Amino acid sequence: MALGTLFGGPIGDRSAAKRVIWASILGVAPFSMMLPFVDLMWTGILTFIIGLILSSAFSAIVVFAQELMPGKVARCRFVLRFAFGIGASAPPFWGASPIGTV
Protein backbone atom coordinates (compact mmCIF):
# COMPACT_ATOMS: atom_id res chain seq x y z
CA MET A 1 0.00 0.00 0.00
CA ALA A 2 2.80 2.40 0.87
CA LEU A 3 4.59 1.71 -2.41
CA GLY A 4 1.46 2.35 -4.46
CA THR A 5 0.75 5.60 -2.64
CA LEU A 6 4.38 6.64 -2.98
CA PHE A 7 4.41 6.01 -6.73
CA GLY A 8 0.89 7.33 -7.36
CA GLY A 9 1.59 10.78 -5.88
CA PRO A 10 4.23 11.92 -8.39
CA ILE A 11 2.33 10.34 -11.26
CA GLY A 12 -0.78 12.26 -10.21
CA ASP A 13 1.25 15.46 -10.02
CA ARG A 14 2.58 15.04 -13.56
CA SER A 15 -0.73 14.07 -15.08
CA ALA A 16 -4.27 14.84 -14.03
CA ALA A 17 -5.51 13.26 -10.81
CA LYS A 18 -8.61 12.06 -12.61
CA ARG A 19 -6.48 10.00 -15.00
CA VAL A 20 -4.66 8.30 -12.15
CA ILE A 21 -7.94 7.44 -10.46
CA TRP A 22 -9.40 5.95 -13.65
CA ALA A 23 -6.18 4.09 -14.43
CA SER A 24 -6.16 2.53 -10.98
CA ILE A 25 -9.78 1.45 -11.26
CA LEU A 26 -9.51 0.04 -14.78
CA GLY A 27 -5.93 -1.18 -14.37
CA VAL A 28 -6.85 -3.88 -11.88
CA ALA A 29 -9.60 -5.39 -14.04
CA PRO A 30 -7.42 -7.84 -16.02
CA PHE A 31 -5.58 -9.00 -12.90
CA SER A 32 -8.84 -9.43 -11.00
CA MET A 33 -10.33 -11.49 -13.80
CA MET A 34 -7.29 -13.80 -13.79
CA LEU A 35 -7.55 -14.55 -10.04
CA PRO A 36 -10.08 -17.43 -10.20
CA PHE A 37 -7.96 -19.31 -12.74
CA VAL A 38 -4.51 -19.29 -11.08
CA ASP A 39 -2.90 -21.29 -8.30
CA LEU A 40 -1.92 -20.09 -4.84
CA MET A 41 1.48 -18.66 -5.79
CA TRP A 42 0.07 -16.56 -8.61
CA THR A 43 -2.82 -15.49 -6.39
CA GLY A 44 -0.33 -13.88 -4.01
CA ILE A 45 1.55 -12.20 -6.85
CA LEU A 46 -1.63 -10.91 -8.49
CA THR A 47 -2.99 -9.69 -5.16
CA PHE A 48 0.22 -7.71 -4.60
CA ILE A 49 -0.06 -6.15 -8.08
CA ILE A 50 -3.75 -5.33 -7.57
CA GLY A 51 -3.04 -3.69 -4.21
CA LEU A 52 -0.16 -1.69 -5.70
CA ILE A 53 -2.30 -0.38 -8.55
CA LEU A 54 -5.35 0.36 -6.38
CA SER A 55 -3.37 2.17 -3.70
CA SER A 56 -1.68 4.38 -6.29
CA ALA A 57 -4.91 6.36 -6.53
CA PHE A 58 -5.08 7.20 -2.82
CA SER A 59 -2.98 10.37 -2.93
CA ALA A 60 -4.66 11.45 -6.18
CA ILE A 61 -8.08 11.03 -4.56
CA VAL A 62 -7.08 13.15 -1.57
CA VAL A 63 -5.65 15.91 -3.78
CA PHE A 64 -8.68 15.77 -6.09
CA ALA A 65 -11.06 16.09 -3.14
CA GLN A 66 -9.16 19.09 -1.83
CA GLU A 67 -9.26 20.71 -5.29
CA LEU A 68 -13.03 20.22 -5.43
CA MET A 69 -13.51 21.95 -2.07
CA PRO A 70 -10.79 24.60 -1.72
CA GLY A 71 -10.58 26.14 1.74
CA LYS A 72 -12.45 23.21 3.29
CA VAL A 73 -9.56 20.88 4.03
CA ALA A 74 -11.00 19.92 7.41
CA ARG A 75 -14.22 18.74 5.78
CA CYS A 76 -12.25 16.65 3.28
CA ARG A 77 -10.27 15.14 6.16
CA PHE A 78 -13.49 14.35 8.04
CA VAL A 79 -15.10 12.67 5.03
CA LEU A 80 -11.98 10.62 4.37
CA ARG A 81 -11.70 9.48 7.98
CA PHE A 82 -15.42 8.71 8.09
CA ALA A 83 -15.11 6.58 4.94
CA PHE A 84 -12.18 4.65 6.41
CA GLY A 85 -14.04 4.14 9.68
CA ILE A 86 -17.15 2.83 7.97
CA GLY A 87 -15.05 0.58 5.74
CA ALA A 88 -13.20 -0.85 8.70
CA SER A 89 -16.29 -1.45 10.81
CA ALA A 90 -18.50 -2.93 8.09
CA PRO A 91 -16.94 -6.41 7.54
CA PRO A 92 -18.06 -7.87 10.90
CA PHE A 93 -21.63 -7.04 9.96
CA TRP A 94 -21.24 -8.76 6.56
CA GLY A 95 -19.90 -11.91 8.15
CA ALA A 96 -16.35 -11.45 6.85
CA SER A 97 -13.73 -11.52 9.54
CA PRO A 98 -9.96 -11.49 9.21
CA ILE A 99 -9.76 -13.82 12.22
CA GLY A 100 -12.07 -16.43 10.75
CA THR A 101 -15.55 -17.46 11.78
CA VAL A 102 -16.82 -15.37 14.65
Summary, kept brief:
This protein is an all-alpha fold. It contains seven helices and no strands.
Description:
The protein is 76% helix and 0% strand. It contains seven helices and no strands. The chain has helices at residues 2-14, 17-27, 29-34, 40-55, 58-68, 73-89, 91-94. The radius of gyration is 16 Å and the shape is flat. The mean pLDDT is 80.
Give the helices and strands, then pairings.
Layout: H1 2-14, H2 17-27, H3 29-34, H4 40-55, H5 58-68, H6 73-89, H7 91-94
Primary descriptors:
102 residues, mainly alpha
Alpha-beta classification? mainly alpha
Topology order in helix (H) and strand (E) letters: HHHHHHH
User: Roughly what is the average pLDDT, rounded to an integer?
Assistant: 80
Q: Total number of β-strand segments?
A: 0
Distance between the termini: 27 Å
Shape: flat
Helix content: over 70%
pLDDT < 50 runs, ≥5 residues: none
Question: Any idea what the radius of gyration is?
Answer: 16 Å
Largest sheet: none
Q: Beta-strand percentage?
A: under 5%
H/I helix tally = 7
